[in-house]
């Protein structure tokens, strides 16, 4: 198991390095002149050349790549082309907000998946199982932004229970923080919880026919007791793997949810950077998002090895 973890860590480091190189090169070769976009089409060639030199864009591409990778080793994500301020503090502040939102959405997704997936898998032909399967199917087909708007209309506008938007940091008050987090997390988790529920439904139905569950029922346990005590651990293995994929989708969905609820996360920061053609900011955001996704997939691999003894035996 230790060897498996070491291999995953090495693969994570190499993937993060490749992502950093690709993020820089792909954005660096985009058509258009950043300096011309900053100054406007009426700027003189001399002013554009002066700004290019100031931003370091007149240097060879490989030299700029080397400087950027060297800065990453010291935690320097570059300097914003638009504001001439360090990128790292802005990106890390926004990343904290997005990470909180995504993790909260993942918790909501898991809660929904455990309820709907277990019911649909264990009771596929009973009314409650059929209803759970239908709810999961409807949840998959509803876009997260539409779910967010509906939640705002019901819980913020009609009932007035929760705020319609905005963000409060945990340090400014836990109750306000949870109130502002509830609707965005629910909107983000509904769709992905329905996807995970479909995975769990199929996994529960497969595990329900295993011999060890028949033995558990033969000694007096009910079907539900046998599943929760002995079968759920095996049923969750493919769902844990799917959660790594869904995390990337949650990050992408958070970009939309942040716009619906006016949350100052990576999505809002990315849209502003695109509007001002701030390539340094865009590069840093892309790299942070990719590293987060790679890190979660690393954790998923480790968690799978802990949960599934077959992977430990194979290692």
UniProtKB/TrEMBL annotation:
Localization per Swiss-Prot or TrEMBL: Cell membrane
Naturally occurring in which organism (per UniProt): Pseudoclavibacter caeni
GO molecular function, one term: dipeptide transmembrane transporter activity
InterPro entries per the UniProt record, alphabetical: BPD_transp_1_N, MetI-like, MetI-like_sf
Protein name (record): ABC transporter permease
Family: Belongs to the binding-protein-dependent transport system permease family.
Pfam family, one: BPD_transp_1_N
Gene3D superfamilies: MetI-like
Residues that span the membrane, as ranges: 97-119, 131-157, 177-197, 235-261, 281-307
Domain ABC transmembrane type-1: start-end pairs: 95-300
Gene Ontology cellular component list: plasma membrane
